[in-house]
Amino acid sequence: MDPIQQLVDFTRHYYQTNDFIPLHAPQFGDAEKQAVMDTLESTFVSSVGRYVDEFEQQISQFTGSAGAVATVNGTAALHAALYASGVRQGDMVITQALSFVATANVIHHMGATPAFVDISPSGFGLCPDALAAFLDEHGQLRDGACYHKTSHQRIGAVVPMHTFGHPADMDGLLRVCQQWHIPLVEDAAESLGSWYQGHHTGTLGDFGALSFNGNKIITTGGGGMVLTRTAGAQQQVKHLTTTAKVPHPYEFFHDQAGFNYRMPNLNAALGCGQMTRLNDYLKAKRALAEHYQQLFAGTEYQFIQEPENCRSNYWLNGIICPDKACRDKLLTITNDQGVMTRPVWQLMHRLPMYQDCIRGTLPTAERAAERIVNLPSSPLTTKEA
Ligand SMILES: *Cc1c(COP(=O)(O)O)cnc(C)c1O
């Protein structure tokens, strides 16, 4: 039977519906309702309240990070993380060519310039070999910092992204970053519940950023979190994201140009409710990934599996089509039948605002961009799958 029709039939059967099947839909229950109602009744809906602290503690405990600071969204978390790691106006920041646009936008809006490097064929995170090659060609160590040879911009950070929840090759990336004295900040927006050799993604670099947008594995409506390696760094980021106000009973004194990036208590309440479901979601996502793997075994479509020694959250399932024509055919047929599938993001250097950015050679990213399709990935926890 045709694998495309098999995919449509499988999702209809799996989700037990003839309605439109989205890529990822959030689910809420009593835990969320109670926490949100409790927040309304307390009137502490805004930037102060117990759910913010509770949510931060829960994330910190779950990920094993020394610190966690809740923010208004994942983009803000990444901005605060990059700022805390020392990135400043005029710097160059290296990231991967295949990512959601927020990664590059944050770099751009800091007055820094993104530079794009290729991804690994396994997991589609930033490739350590490609990073090393890029730095061999463009990097220069001076006074314990790394500079771009011709533009003389300081290379302020390297930002890998754990694509679809699959951990990037952190050992390799950390090795290259240490050699070149460049801070490493993880865009872990998609990878809550993903582990690299027993370490949670976002806790291996200098900082990590999570997102709780509506389409992520758990949601706070909008929200994000900075993960830090030390309690001191947590205080630094908390200070930075809360207008850098020096604690005082009534005086307003701010000791640096801070951000107002704090997550409202109302959103944190939703997050605390969602945390009660995270382990069920992870189980359900893994079960669904196994179904997809079996479905595409022996076909010309290759299911995207977690890299070796990693445990992925399988946030967004994907397959690699044999070529662009097959991909386009699959996209048309499935979407016409109300089963949502989607191509991966445009590579960053193909977007008008980033077309002139410096980049390495991008063979893997170019291949992936033409062939990847993401599949319906909502976790099924209410019915037996
Ligand atoms: C979702 C996402 C972000 C941004 O998170 P928001 O909460 O939507 O601001 C950043 N990077 C990647 C890779 C993402 O998938």
UniProtKB/TrEMBL annotation:
**Entry's Gene Ontology BP terms:** polysaccharide biosynthetic process
Keyword list (alphabetical) reads: Aminotransferase, Pyridoxal phosphate, Transferase
* A single MF term (Gene Ontology): pyridoxal phosphate binding
Q: What class of enzyme is it?
A: transferase
Native organism taxonomy = Bacteria, Pseudomonadati, Pseudomonadota, Gammaproteobacteria, Alteromonadales
Q: Which NCBIfam families match?
A: NHT_00031 (TIGR04181)
Which family, according to the similarity comment?
Answer: Belongs to the DegT/DnrJ/EryC1 family.
Catalytic residue list: K216 (proton acceptor)
Residue numbers carrying N6-(pyridoxal phosphate)lysine: K216
Sorted alphabetically, which CDD domains does this protein's record hold? AHBA_syn
Pfam families in alphabetical order = DegT_DnrJ_EryC1 (PF01041)
Q: What is its EC number?
A: 2.6.1.-
The record's section on PANTHER family has: BLR5990 PROTEIN (PTHR30244:SF30), TRANSAMINASE (PTHR30244)
Name the UniProt record assigns to this protein: GDP-perosamine synthase
